[in-house]
Amino acid sequence: MQLLANIIVLGAIYALISCGYVLIYRVSRVLNLAHGELMMVGAYLLLTTAGMIPNPWIAIPVAGLLSLAMGALVYLLLMRRMTGESVLAAILTTIALGILLRGVVVIFFSAAHQYPSVPLGLHASSVEVLPGARISSLSLVLVVVTALVYGSLFAFLRLSRWGLRMRAAGQNPLLAAQRGINLHGIYAMVWGIAIFTGSIAGMLISLDAGLDQTLIMIGLKAFPGALVGGLDSLLGALVGSLIVAAAEVLLIQYVNPLLADVVPFLILIAMLVFRPWGLFGTREALDRV
Amino acid sequence: MSKTKLLALILAAAALLALPFTVSGAWMDIANQILLASIGALALMLLTGFAGQISLGHAGLLAAGAFTAGILSRELGAPFWVGIPAAGLTGALLGVIFGLPSLRLRGIYLAVSTLALHFLVVYLGGEYETRRGFSTGILIDPPMVFGIELWDPFAWYPVLLVGAILTYALSRNLLKSRTGRAWAAIHDTEPVAAALGINVARTKLWAFVITSAITAMAGALFAYYRGFVSIEAFSLFVTIQYVAMIIIGGMGSLTGAVLGAAFVTLLPHLIEGATRYLPTGGAISGSVFAMNYAAFGLIMIAFLVFEPGGLMGIARRLKGRG
Fold first, then answer.
1. ipTM topping 0.95
2. How many domains does the structure of chain A reveal?
3. Cβ neighbours for B225, distance < 8 A, ≥ 6 positions apart
């Protein structure tokens, strides 16, 4: 039971992060390898707002809005210039951005392990969710938030006008632009939403476990979940994250704790060998890159 | 070869030969690092700049070579002349594994599969270190080459210089050969290359095998040079540095790879020098590491956005103007 609870919590963490990879890839065909770093910056934004306004109901939404703006700015100031460049150039730009952010974060916030939960006065207590299985109350919040985020993303993409435009831009940018869709606006928006969801994950993790550069590795480890499910499928990201989390928790428990950092990537390799487009992804996605 | 080119070549050769007699030990060490980085960057340039295959597993390959040399030297007392070819062999084998995904995958899928393999190699290295009780790393005694014990930067310089020149010459010849022309063909358009009778799968695998073998040997040289191997030294950042070298140098140019290697190796020293002259020098010197990251990311972005041709692109433009 405890193992099941752990799998669900880890799966929710991975899912909340990996939807950012999927959103950006699905709409703009860019793989954002700075997602882990941007999510860390989001958590540091919370540290900053928490230092100024010690009220979680204000500090967290403000940090969330700031990270939304940060995502849009990353597109408008940087990634927009990479339109039409090669796949490699676009990936490398995100990697370079990641390196830059790592340095900037240490310069501004130091490399020390810090706790944004302290100024907010939040304490994680232990909750019994299933008979014999306890998780921290913040983990419970994280699972609920992940469910909410996925629910609203599905609704947004299916039902809203902007969601329709996003799907159109992802399917065929040229035709979408011909029909009067502002592609740059759509891309900026999707970057904003993706970084927003990633940052929420970063904030919740850092409220629970503290904040330092190890958050980047968590961000990167969430990527295989997105790929296992299929890089252009949100449902896939959810399922893939759960699969990766289950494999990771079970292998750590029964085989070797040192495997923690490598399991997601082993699954990724296996997936790339047998079904590179993922469980729910579209096969054409492979040829489009 | 034109007269000016010949003159430049002679001057460069003279400078390289005179270097050990004019610089301090610290600068000799930096020169050696540049030579080591050049070997790795040349190898990556063959793969990415010429054959058009993306790899984010370069640090993993360096680590594999370094560990091969380290383990052979530590466990079996194997000499330098066994360690280096053995590392090359390990690299070639890994090259097949790293290259296999490229037969089916392209673009970002290839990038992430090589990235995953990087983590796999790093895991295996770490596992070896803890299992054998070398949790801090493996010590390697200075190797004997032609009866000379290589223990200081000045003794190493000729060896590394020869290594770098050999790699450059090998790469140049490879590019002129049938294999090199096949790489250029699959880089441009794969279906056309296939239609011309090029075995695309074999050509791609060759590119990975050759690159990986050279890279692993560079890793082994690095291990011998440092006298110490630890998996900590082969983080993802190392991969990024090598990718930055070929971008900053200029894609599709061997000279560019060497220039990029020099640039990326010198950058931290330049930054350190610059912070010393800043008025707030003392205050931020504690975060030199962070400054390096930030500056490195910024420069990489600047090249990607404003000068995709790299240093060679700048050189070409200046020449065109003059």
1. no
2. 1
3. B32, B36, B150, B156, B160
